[in-house]
Write a structure and sequence with these properties.
CATH architecture of the largest domain: 3-Layer(aba) Sandwich
Order of helices and strands: EEEHEEHHHHEHEHEEH
Number of strands: 9
Radius of gyration: 18 Å
Strand content: 15-25%
Strand order of the largest sheet: 5-6-7-3-8-9
Helix content: 25-40%
CATH superfamily of the largest domain: P-loop containing nucleotide triphosphate hydrolases
CATH topology of the largest domain: Rossmann fold
Structural class: alpha/beta
Distance between the termini: 59 Å
């Protein structure tokens, strides 16, 4: 049985070469839920995600990133980036089991095939990335993320390069297979946040704003009126001009 996923709290501020990137802020991620993080370009969404993942070597973060169970996060997170990052010389099965190979561990080929079958990729196991469509490559990347079987999943605009139909299909797959994990999804797409978020947070130049998600389980139907209304409200918030400096 998989251990219960922790809630996370990120509390602090970040700088690069002394210049502020974001914060101070306090972001809470509920255990076993998908939190969607929206915001304009340049406010630090990806930086925040990379800091949580522990893969940012250029940003100075002052603060704390803590799990509700008090245990270290090292080894309990998996990151799926916007680019699929598949290795072109490995086939699908090799890319999905790459983590075990890098760790020098035995590859669980039975489980890998099960996940790939769930992704609709059972007939493509021996293909290399250049023989796959964009949607198939993203399915492989998601399968590789799931293969790590981590309780905390970090997604950095993983479906933004896909066409609308394939993006919706990938959102459905992700919601199904990430159920019960603590997920932070960075996205620029209000429609994606309205479909996928148990919680929705907007990061702007002035900090974080919580936005109430539409009702219903995720993934919410794309044509649901309340989901569409939430999408519109999110877009309006994102289009609102940033507040200017306070007059002296």
């Amino acid at each position: 049985m998989r251990p219960a996923p922790p809630a996370l709290v990120i509390d602090g501020h970040a700088r690069i070469d002394g210049l502020p990137v974001f914060g101070p802020l306090r972001l809470s991620l509920a255990a076993g839920r998908i939190t969607c993080l929206l915001g304009p370009s340049g406010v630090g969404k990806t930086t925040l995600l990379r800091l949580i993942a522990g893969v940012d070597d250029v940003t100075t973060f002052t603060g704390t990133i803590t799990a509700s169970d008090g245990l270290p996060l090292t080894g309990r997170m998996a990151l799926m980036a916007q680019s699929d990052l598949l290795l072109p010389w490995l086939d699908v099965l090799g890319n999905v089991t790459l983590g075990a190979r890098l760790r020098g561990a035995r590859r669980d080929l039975i489980r890998a095939r099960q996940i790939l079958n769930q992704m609709g990729l059972a007939d493509h196991l021996e293909k290399r990335p250049d023989a796959l469509s964009g949607g198939q490559r993203q399915r492989v990347a998601l399968a590789r993320t799931l293969m790590e079987d981590r309780p905390v999943i970090l997604l950095d605009e993983p479906f933004s390069a896909l066409d609308a139909r394939t993006r919706a299909e990938m959102q459905d797959l992700a919601a199904t297979h990430l159920a019960g994990r603590t997920v932070l999804m960075v996205t620029h797409d209000p429609a994606e946040a309205a479909r996928m978020g148990h919680a929705i947070v907007i990061l702007s130049e002035t900090g974080l704003v919580d936005v109430a998600p539409p009702p219903g389980p995720v993934p919410r139907p794309v044509e649901d009126p309340e989901t569409l209304a939430a999408q519109g409200r999110l877009l309006a918030r994102l289009r609102a001009p940033a507040p200017g400096p306070v007059p002296c």
